[in-house]
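Example 3.2
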Amino acid sequence: MGEFSTNEMMTVAAARRLPDGATCFVGIGLPSTAANLARLTHAPEAVLIYESGPIGAKPSVLPLSIGDGELAETADTVVSTPEIFRYWLQGGRIDIGFLGAAQIDRYANLNTTVIGAYDAPRTRLPGAGGAPEIAGSAKEVLIIVRQSRRTFVETLDFITSVGHLDGGDARQRAGLRGKGPTAVITDLCVMEPDPVTRELTVVSIHPGVSRERIVEATGWPVRFAATLKTTAEPAAAELVALRALQARTDAAHGSAHAGTDA
């Protein structure tokens, strides 16, 4: 197996979590890269849905936004945004929601709203979009995000999308459907919520990454599973498909697709 980047490892590891045939509500950026890689490799029957209305989108290049014409042009059908949310998402028809975030806490709650105080933020982020509804209504949620202390924080500046709230059975007590976040895939490792406390726990470490590096990149005392796995390296076919997707996207959009890079 040839050389691969940490971002490629993250994207491949995230793509592997999407089963063939699953109906997946996809966020723009890293989630879209991973979901489309899955569609191009082991999950050709996955149905990708974007909040602008495309159902069964099969883009040849990564979309710049939910309004990218490539999504509608390659979809099986396009419906209204209210139908996407009311019938598909809130109707319980979405198997997996695929999300990213600017901040995440130990219970996989997400912030995509502001960094700093809400009334006077240091940075105003892209906002919620459909993420709160995806997090609250999908049967399960996958999160893909690069790991650093700026992103993996002790306390969120703003809770945009709920994960497991303050842990335990808090999500169920709040009346939210679905399992919530079942995995967080980063450029260093894979985390899953503890079955009882729901605190994120490292279950798999990517090749060449040390425990110490993960600890340094996490803003809380991170937990490791008693039996840790090493993430399988990307297969040749996975890298070929991912790099071809990126090359097509670069040719179509150039640097405009910053943030969707693998």
